[in-house]
């Protein structure tokens, strides 16, 4: 998934992609209720719009493609 994630970040420069290591930043994991890895979040205007649990590159790509507009708040991906 890392390769696909990086590829999406390069092809969608209008979206901010972040990687968070839940072992290093457990507060983020707790705040967003991460129960499995990887977990992907689309966050817009400080609200979780969509959550994808598991390594599903096609679903993540669809999410990014459908949401590829400038964000006021970043898209966060938690693994």
TrEMBL record:
CDD domains: TRX_family. It comes from the Eukaryota. Residues 4-64 form the Thioredoxin domain. PANTHER family: THIOREDOXIN (PTHR10438), THIOREDOXIN-LIKE PROTEIN CXXS1 (PTHR10438:SF242). This is Thioredoxin domain-containing protein.
């Amino acid at each position: 998934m890392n390769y696909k994630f990086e590829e999406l970040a390069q092809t969608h420069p209008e979206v901010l992609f972040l990687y968070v290591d839940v072992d290093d930043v457990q507060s983020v994991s707790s705040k967003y209720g991460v129960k499995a890895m990887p977990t992907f979040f689309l966050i817009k205007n400080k609200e979780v719009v969509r959550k994808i649990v598991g390594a599903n590159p096609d679903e993540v790509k669809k999410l990014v493609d459908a949401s590829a507009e400038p964000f006021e708040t970043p898209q966060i991906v938690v693994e």
